[in-house]
Amino acid sequence: MPGWNASDIPDQSGRTAVVTGANSGIGHVTARELARRGARVVLACRSEARGTEAVSRIAAELPGAEVEFAPLDLGDLKSVREFADSHAPARIDLLINNAGVMALPYAQTADGFETQFGVNHLGHFALTGLLLPRIENVDGARIVTVSSGLHALANIDIGDLNSERRYRRWVAYGRSKTANLLFTHELARRLAAGGSGVVAAAAHPGYASTNLQTAGPQLEGRRGIERAVGLANRIVAQSAQAGALPTLYAATAPGVRPDSFTGPRLQGWRGAPAKSWRAPWTLNDIAGERLWVASEQLTGVAYGLS
What we know:
By secondary structure, the chain is of the alpha/beta class. It has helices at about 25-35, 50-60, 75-85, 115-130, 170-195, 210-220, 225-235, 240-245, 245-250, 285-300, and strands at about 15-20, 40-45, 65-70, 95, 140-145, 200-205, 260-265, 270-275.
């Protein structure tokens, strides 16, 4: 694993990948590099304008690449179902649950969920469940969910998943990223129990320079904080190209184990992909099962896995 980079991605010819939030940041790099290696890639994005522009950028850089846009708003379960019914490929080798929001002011999704929990976890939980019949019989298929080292900020509160009692943006973000890891943990367990060969794994980018960090301050008009975060991104953060490597490793490298968590090698902040530390609560079987049951009830999406 030392020094692993995008040139080490195995040939992906004949494989189909769905990447959520692929119009910018690490999602865009992930989609581009999979396409570079021969995969057909569906860029599942909320904005048609940004999604089609991202497809054009990849096509310009990689003539002949099989890339396409499909509409998907993870903050609206109706959109998630429409994607699964009308836009998703019939066969999926790689599902990359990449899209996310960070530390936003309190808001709710179209279905009334707290936005960070609703988009980062519930939207991807519903999407994965709806697409699973197109994944589980595909040889070598993988489901990679992008979490964050900042999951360590908070465990989930099963009695207050939507932060209705008290909302603290960074705690809510940490909980949503913990939910990503608990989801991966429980999905991996249930797939194995059912005899499936699908690998469910997780990854995180460390501190990568993307628009994720500035979205909250920009939304609230906090220009000073927005400028400070932008400066930190330029000075401290690694590039989106480097930040995408753990996701690409989890999606394509040989020998990736179910429920593994891959991040940057150097203190989890930057560097080549490596096994990443994770909080003990993200490996709790009881918490994983309780979150799973609650997620099925909230989304109305039942997996049929036990």
